[in-house]
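Appendix B.2, paired examples.
Example (i):
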Amino acid sequence: MEVLKIATAGSVDDGKSTLIGRILYDTKSLTTDKLEAIEKTSKQRGYDYLDFSLATDGLVAEREQGITIDVAHIYFSTQKKSYIIADTPGHVEYTRNMVTGASTSQAAIILIDARRGVIEQTNRHFFINNLLRIKDVVVAINKMDLVSYSEEIYNKIKADFSELMRKRDYQDQKITFIPVSALKGDNVVNKSKNMPWYRGEALLEHLEQLDKKDIYNVGTPRFPVQYVIRPKTEDFHDFRGYAGKVYGGELSVGDDIMVLPSKTKSKIKDIFFYDQKYQTASRRSSVTITLENDINVSRGDMIVKSGDLPIIDKQFTATVCWMDAQQLTTGAKYVLQHGINKVLAKVDKINHKINPDYSGIEENVSGLKVNDIASVTFKLNKPIFYDPFKNHRTNGSFILIDTQNNNTVGAGFIQ
């Protein structure tokens, strides 16, 4: 079954957790004990309705404060798809959490409170979705029940957000506006009778109909070798396979390939998934590949099509989201993990800091604080094989690791 990962973003009290809880409730994805706990807590608090936000806010501090702090992953399925929702906090101080949640998502939901409209945090949420090249974005205008389901207010917010869209640099995004009431269930899973003027789909209906070709940035195939398989048994004495995951495109039997960094050429002989043979390995499939030539291939090498090489270099510029309390400064050294490869990286230059509210850039920056986003140039101790992030989300991204404590301190997207 197809799996769709969705990032959510919304400011404090926009109703994001309630929306997710409503989806789980209306799709009958809540367990009996979870539903009983929600009913009991809602009664204790004197509510005459079910507080669906309790379905997702798992930390004690989240439940006590009524806010989302950590990134939670919520799983549910329908007859058409399996879903993973990354419930990320909307506060400015949790920008790094938003980036983390959205970095592996194929679609996004940005919530806007119908009473407040487009605010500064909306700019930030849209900027992050634009930065991470998320192709399908739903703008859910929530709490329509509190504005009497006003079409005029909906159209005003839609027009304001359309002005924000003019500032983006990623034009391939599809933006869909849906008026909802997460509390009442209007246009979440089922179409609302309270907004006859809205002729579009309900939120879940829209997600159900998303096609892979519309949400994935299909690029060129990249196959990082995770493991070299040599059974050394009597039946498979001469077997030599290369196990890994296909990113960005498809690989087929007979394809002319090149192994990096050696640049040795060969052809794909067989593609295995467990003990089954396949003619083609689709994107994001984990397979074992054999080659026609007995050449030297090791863990960390990359198999690519011969006429479709990535960039091989020891220097590049990337957009970095800084996640650590200790500042990133020029000259600092980190372990850069790109795919399964790790190299030593030195910060050559902080080019400028990027304000994620679309207010411009800041020059002459001496260091990056937690949640800062900036353009940074790195020098590496050995080459990596990469693609620009805009062309290949997987092969164009990396993380930075502190050499002293092994903490992940930053995420980068190669320009």
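Example (ii):
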Amino acid sequence: MDTPTLAGLKARWNDVLDDLEATHRTAWLALFDGRLSSLDGDTLVLDFSDATKLAGGHGFERANRPQFAEALADSVERVTGSRLTVVLSAGA
């Protein structure tokens, strides 16, 4: 399947998060407030620079675990049919 566009992935993002919650709840808890920042080829960047603005804040260190990025990549693949590399970023 073709690599999705960022707009297409944003349109399906709730489906991706629902899948992640059902298959890896710990990763979902750590990643659900990340923002889709960019999609360059097969690399998706999930940005957490605004996460501290949310109620209770968000520790990027908690989210920045390879197994969580892999679980999210698995969910993206199940929902879209495309395998992406997920990069977690705390912003510039």
